[in-house]
Design a protein that fits this description.
189 residues; alpha+beta; VC0467-like
Length: 189
């Protein structure tokens, strides 16, 4: 049997209007890993009311870089919401627990990246989330087949340079569509 499984690693998942799960309604997810075992990603367009300074104070870290103090912490997904996930550009610095996304960004879950950010030695461009999004084997493919998600190659510029409220439309623009062109109904020929 040929291996025709799709690999959506380093792609954006863009929630379709008919997304049944309210947690993901209007969400853009950066997929860090996708295999036959499942998928893991981070929602990139849901800032919380927590900022970096507040989070770092809870972790007993002093944030030395003032411009970062009011950067929001994001809701990365409903799994492990008590745990931090840092999505960042490759730095060449080996952190204790990092996943290097082939052709894309890195996701680090160890405290050493936060310590590096706090003292100004961490990644220059990063997004910090609480929680992540996860799918079991075949679950994401099923959701895509039921018109739950659009997919497109990820653009780090959208993650780091576009305001959170505009990331959904910016991700759609990569496909050449606007939200007004989307329908909650799936069509089959």
């Amino acid at each position: 049997m040929p291996n025709d499984r799709i690999n959506l690693t380093n792609q954006f998942l863009i929630a379709m209007p008919g997304m049944a799960d309210p947690t993901f309604s209007g969400a853009v997810v950066y997929l860090c890993e996708h295999s036959e075992k499942g998928a893991i990603g981070l929602v990139i367009n849901r800032p919380t009311d927590i900022d970096l300074q507040s989070l770092f104070e809870r972790l007993d870290l002093k944030l030395e870089i003032d411009p970062l103090a009011h950067q929001p912490v994001f809701f990365g997904g409903p799994v492990q919401t008590e745990r931090g996930f840092v999505l960042h550009e490759p730095t060449g610095t080996p952190y204790s627990s990092s996943l290097s996304v082939p052709g894309g960004l890195e996701m680090t879950t160890s405290k050493d990246v936060l310590e590096a950010v706090a003292n100004g030695q961490g990644p220059q461009r990063f997004l910090l989330t609480l929680g992540h999004s996860g799918w079991g084997a075949g679950q994401l493919e099923d959701e895509i087949g039921r018109n739950g998600w659009l997919t497109v190659a990820a653009d780090p510029g959208i993650v780091f340079d576009v305001p959170p409220a505009d990331r959904f439309d910016a991700a759609l623009a990569l496909l050449g569509v606007t939200s007004s062109m989307l329908s909650a109904d799936a069509g089959h020929a």
